[in-house]
Specification:
Largest sheet of chain A: 4 strands, mixed
GO cellular component, one term (chains A, B): mitochondrion
Oligomer: homodimer
CATH topology of the largest domain in chain A: Glutathione S-transferase Yfyf (Class Pi), Chain A, domain 2
Pfam families (chains A, B): GST_C_3 (PF14497), GST_N_2 (PF13409)
Helix content of chain A: 40-55%
Number of helices of chain A: 9
Protein name (chains A, B): GSTZ1 protein
InterPro entries (chains A, B): Glutathione-S-Trfase_C-like (IPR010987), Glutathione-S-Trfase_C_sf (IPR036282), Glutathione_S-Trfase (IPR040079), Glutathione_S-Trfase_N (IPR004045), GST_C (IPR004046), Thioredoxin-like_sf (IPR036249)
Distance between the termini of chain A: 44 Å
Structural class of chain A: alpha+beta
Order of helices and strands of chain A: EHEHEEHHHHHHH
CATH architecture of the largest domain in chain A: Up-down Bundle
Largest interface: A-B, 29 and 30 residues
Shape of chain A: globular
GO molecular function, one term (chains A, B): glutathione transferase activity
Chain lengths: ~230, ~230
């Protein structure tokens, strides 16, 4: 079933990672995985541009079906492979609502993280606009307590919407891993999130897509003051 | 069925509008509609903060179920009221994939529009950073031809994924209406999108949520040069 699936992905991209977690959780580990180098601009290759005019990853193909928005890939995989692997979207309407809410809501973390990290990455430290950095740091610092509170409602060992791993976790865990990579002091500031991160990061689906280049490089300290 | 639904919304907010279009399309027009004033900061009222700690709209409640991310509201409504009103997400896997892809992809238009409009709205014209404006204008100008091309694949009179109105249209039409409100020369630059806009804007579900304050105010010319 997974033999007619191809995924183009980039190392360290949370959107790619969330799609890959869903692939693993749905038992589709045999798909064709094509790691592209951002440095060599392989995401702008003819092979990708032909099916994804944005020249971005993830670029996903299942037979003749192409889906390139990571949230859409996750939803598509869950709907298409409903009866195999982990159930990522519960049938119960109120539980489903909660999963959809938290799943979509993870985009807030990604946006706020991205605004700060990309700015620091692209701008020479001596040119940093401290007012801009203060604003963006505040936005991220106000985002994370929401998640800390969501998690604190459930018992130790739970996932972000309760006892089961869902689409919301597939999207949250790469976002958290990215924060840790950027040296956000998760453990000191957000103990529930830190404990969740420690627990979920070793899940096979999460490990299988762990960014290869993270294993032998230290990351940046862009978020140490959040 | 709609009597236990409440939606808090703001006039002119595309995320609110897309949720409202889905409510109408699913035959739920009898819901409790609470228009909040951004000017009076009613979106930060206790009533909303209690169920939506972000203090944002849309804030949606169906019985005890709360969903506040607009894309999640749309998906929830379609899944929960599957067999009534317009079918917004097709069952056929390849058609469903296309709808999910385009639905999520509309966020690109919103983000690129927002980056430009909010900057111009919040910054005095004499302080405008022309380099920043040029970058953001270019990003939006590169986004819209993708949609023009998507639409050109289908015959005259079609929707964004083919012959049926779907979630993707519910999300696209407010984004286009916002562009028009900001004086983007849609007709001159993107004839397929302009024709789509003219056709879909009069759909009852779209009209029912047309921002009230747009009816007697002219908008801004922030996008006239895109």
């Amino acid at each position: 079933m997974s033999s007619d699936i191809t995924l183009y992905w980039g190392s360290g991209s949370p959107p790619c990672w969330r799609a890959m977690i869903c692939l693993e959780e749905k038992g589709l580990s045999g798909y064709t995985s094509k790691l592209v180098s951002f440095e060599k601009k392989e995401h702008k290759s003819d092979e990708i541009m032909k099916i994804n005019p944005r020249g971005q990853v993830p670029t996903f193909k299942h037979g003749d079906v192409v889906v390139n928005e990571s949230m859409a890939i996750c939803l598509y995989l869950e709907n298409t492979f409903k009866n195999q692997g982990t159930k990522l979207l519960p049938d119960d309407p109120s539980q489903q609502a909660l999963v959809l809410q938290r799943f979509m809501e993870t985009q807030n973390i990604s946006e706020k993280t991205g605004a700060l990290v990309y700015y620091k990455f692209r701008t020479k430290a001596e040119d940093w606009d401290q007012g801009f950095i203060a604003d963006k740091t505040k936005a991220l610092a106000e985002e994370l307590p929401l998640w800390e509170k969501y998690l604190s409602q459930y018992g130790e060992g739970s996932f972000i919407t309760g006892k089961d791993f869902t689409l919301a976790d597939a999207s949250l865990i790469p976002a958290l891993a990215y924060l840790v990579r950027m040296k956000l002091p998760l453990k000191e500031r957000f103990p529930h999130l830190a404990s969740y991160y420690e627990r979920v990061k070793d899940r096979p689906s999460v490990q299988s897509a762990w960014p290869p280049h993270w294993k032998d490089s230290p990351g940046y300290d862009y978020l140490k003051d959040v």
